[in-house]
Amino acid sequence: MNVLDMTLQQSFPTVMVPRKEPVAEMHAAGERLLMAENGVFLEIRRNWISLVRQIAQFHVRTAVPYGRVVESTRLTVFDRIPVDLIGQFASMARQACPKETGAWIV
């Protein structure tokens, strides 16, 4: 395989989802594609969040020999964003930009 293709595969791999066990968890920050029975999924891992989102579906009747994936969002640093933090941010955003807010939590 070409060295550029190998580098791309290492930095953004495609993982075939196993049928009989869960797909191995990502332990480091990065991205990968998950090929699953029910479509193609993008998995993103950062120090504070883990996301899985479907980006494509199969529209053929051919059986795909992989396991299923479910979309998910998991905060990895804390269980949930504290309500008072959201309230504080909303107040600050309204004061700074009453007509536009670019991001809720960064």
Q: Overview of this structure, please?
A:
With 106 residues, the chain is an alpha+beta fold. The protein folds into 2 domains: 3-75, no CATH class; 80-106, no CATH class. Helices cover 22% and strands 27% of the residues. It contains 2 helices and 5 strands, in the order αβββββα. The protein has helices spanning 3-11, 83-96; strands at residues 14-16, 30-36, 39-45, 49-56, 72-75. It has a 5-stranded mixed sheet with strand order 1-2-3-4-5, with no helix packed on it. Strand 3 and strand 4 (49-56) form a beta hairpin. The model has no long low-confidence stretch (mean pLDDT 87).
Which strands sit side by side, in order, in the main sheet? 1-2-3-4-5
- Determine the mean pLDDT: 87
SSE order in H/E notation? HEEEEEH
Helix content: 10-25%
How many domain units? 2
Number of helices: 2
Short overview:
By secondary structure, the protein is an alpha+beta fold. 22% of the residues lie in helices and 27% in strands. It folds into two domains: 3-75, no CATH class; 80-106, no CATH class.
What topology emerges from the helices and strands here?
Blueprint: H1 3-11, E1 14-16, E2 30-36, E3 39-45, E4 49-56, E5 72-75, H2 83-96
Parallel strand pairs: 1-2
Antiparallel strand pairs: 2-3, 3-4, 4-5
Keywords:
106 residues; alpha+beta; five-stranded mixed beta sheet; 2 helices; 22% helix
